UniProtKB/TrEMBL annotation:
It comes from the Bacteria. InterPro entries: CheW, CheW-like_dom_sf, CheW-lke_dom. Gene3D superfamilies: CheA-289, Domain 4 (2.40.50.180), SH3 Domains (2.30.30.40). One of its GO terms (cellular component) is cytosol. SUPFAM superfamilies: CheW-like. SMART domains: CheW. GO terms for biological process: chemotaxis; signal transduction. The lineage of its organism: Bacteria, Pseudomonadati, Thermodesulfobacteriota, Desulfuromonadia, Geobacterales. This is Scaffold protein CheW associated with MCPs of class 40H. Pfam families: CheW. Residues 4-142 form the CheW-like domain. The gene is cheW40H-4. Coiled coil: none annotated.
Amino acid sequence: MSESCHLVIFTLDDQRYALHLSAVDRTVRMVEITPLPKAPGIVLGVISVNGMIVPVLDIRRRFALPERKTGLGDHLVIARTAKRTVALAVNGVHEVIERPAGEIIPPEAVLPGMEHVHGVVKLEDGMVFIHDLDGFLSLEEEQVLDAAMEQERHA
């Protein structure tokens, strides 16, 4: 019996990406994001999720995609890393798919040195990059974000 993998598919512009379903808490419509002073450049700001302050990551910056203001039609993917809960600003969340784990192509088989990518899965209409949230923020970004979040708690 082959192990299967459940993936949440989302888009940035016309490109599809995925996260493992096990890392995703929920998806919500875009809400107002409060700026977080002294946060790393990848952090758009913070939102409140059930009373918890959650940083919103601008993954466009991480992937060097063109800047784009968030709009009411956008979504937030609330997900967990090993260290914290984060929200990812995305254009849309489309579906949850299931694929055999054996169908996931290691990133180095596609392009050596791909950062922040856990693997790639081929679908009938193209490829989807599966992201590794735990490696998304550098150690320095984690430390700067921790300090900014601590400062926000005491403000």
